[in-house]
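Handoff note, outgoing to incoming analyst
You'll be picking up this chain. Sequence as last confirmed:
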Amino acid sequence: FPSGNETFEKLGAIGTLSNLLIYLTTVFNLSNIKAATIISVFNGTANFGTLLGAYICDTFLGRYNTLAAASLASFLGLLLIQLTAAIPGLHPPSCGKSSDAATCKQPTGGQMSFLLTGFALMIIGAGGIRPCNLAFGVDQFNPNTESGRRGINSFFNWYFFTRGVQRMISVTLIVYIQANVSWSIGLAIPAILMLISCALFFGGTKMYVIVKASGSPVTSLIQVFVVSIKKRNLKYLDSNSLFNYIPKKSINKPLPHTDQFNWLDRAAILTPADKINSEDGSPENPWNLCSLQQVEEAKCVVRVLPIWVSGIIYYLAIAQQGTYAIFQANQADRRMGNTKFQVPAATYGVFLMLSLTAFIPVYDRVLVPFLRRLTGKEGGITILQRLGVGVLISVLSMLVSGVVEEQRRRIALTRPTGEISSMSAFWLVPQFVLAGLAEVFGAVGQVEFYYKQFPENMRSVAGALNYCGIAAGSYLSTALIQLVHRTTEGAPTGNWLPEDLNKGRLDYYYYLVGGLGVLNFGYFLWCSSGYRYKKAKDEVVQPEVKGSA
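Most recent structure output, in case you need it:
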């Protein structure tokens, strides 16, 4: 039941995102720039808003209450947007055949307010569902048992499997109904599905393991950094001299002392000026003294951040398959065999989702058990090794994209048929398949990595961190496109990224992104070589072979 919330929320918020752009321009008569701005702000805010949602969840509401409120907000947001299509008074009159937004009647302030309220509610829903949903699912497993740990590993894989199925339904069935049948019906489907999701979620309430909020973990992190700076001049002796205290109600596992980032250890140095509460042994002023447990939890977060940075470049490569790969398809022969039927350019993204959903069961049920017998590791390979494979495949997808584009352009120029190359668009399938495989290893691996390496009370923040990486990769893609466009506009080779791809060198751009991916892979290996996995005091973890991640 918990995994259904995000699946249905994304059916409305992400699966129809490209079609919402068309909706704003055709039904609300907005210009391309205004519509693109609204969608960009919505997408970026929804992803970065997960940080605020995670903070509220971990500090005040807990995951169940946050999911409950966010699910209702998502449903109401989808409902309001659907009403703008169903009720004539909530959108401006149709422009008819005119495509010039300047000559069409623009929406009134009330109509725009109603529409933007729907978007705002969807942002609130996404901010609560996305960071908490996966963490809430993980809460249902007992990590202290072998079956529980294996259940968590499989849960991550099957979670992404359901997301892949959802994305395929979104870009095929729902998009088709919205574009060819009726906007009112097409926008009603996600709202109805979200309502079903709410019913399923609330119906399973009595079965859930519900973990209550335990205070702000972010405040605890800040305290460690502040106190370590305050005590930067104190002499550090050894770990035995450090103050340690673990609250009785803490859900975090006790962590042993590690010798990385020793400058943070100073936050736990007990001085004569530090006062301890006699009742429970906690420090009277946590802004002057932190516990060793707090320090080690902060180290867990610091260790993860360099790996997270490498994920931004990974998502940069994946983002290209949702933008310029579609433009490639648009300027290729999209006919199905010898028939006159043309596959819509945006539909080719289905091959990425097919690759993702088809390989996840193979990975989970075949590859992992096989590798487990070879390596003796519970997941077959370590999480960082899985991430590394994902980064490599993302680089390979960029190289294949460049080679295919080079051939598409050559055929378009040597066998001119207008702006459309006579090369079949199905030659783009390999790069989409590779991008899907990259997500099986990279995207799924990142989520698993964040959830397992963050302290238990920061799992919602871990979920938010993944979405922030996706948003950062998208923003970096936009910035890189603008930089390349402006830099190459007056170059001897010509603009790499013009409107007509046949006049540009998109293949060079793909090779540039691939080159950044190679550098990123080297950076990832460097970060991984010194990484130490989080382990509890009573937990035995198989040591890593240096350099193998």
